[in-house]
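Below is a complete specimen:
___
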Amino acid sequence: MAVEYAEGLYFYQSDIEEFLKTKAAAATMVEYMMQTMGMTMDDIDRFYVCGAFGTHISKEAGVTIGLYPDIDREKIISPGNTSLTGARKMLLCREKKKKTEEILENMEYIQFGAVEDFLHLMTAAMAVPHTDYQRYPSVIKELEKRGRYHT
């Protein structure tokens, strides 16, 4: 079964399922890393969304579906596809290369597949925006305004 979004562009059920898994994994990884560091969204000054998700999804849509955290939209920064720009800067500037190496030395690798409750947390995040509506107060407020959510 498929839905034709535009002429010749079809979305299949499997596409939607994969998207939900991807958004749930991304949101869960951010949540887990912040919990590990003892941080909350109130501690966040800027939230960078790079690559395709940062380029092609509006901030409001990203929050509404639970891909981005429900924070002040001005804190969500979408610089686009930054990998090539970063690589170029690192190759052309020794100071940036040195800073990158320092960051890499201090990074801690997390094997999310080995995190005890990761799949449980990810399953909760597969709902739109999340099974815990309290994490998305602006989305709930908008749904209430539209008469689509009742407490």
Q: What stands out?
A: The beta strands are 2-6, 9-12, 47-50, 76-80.
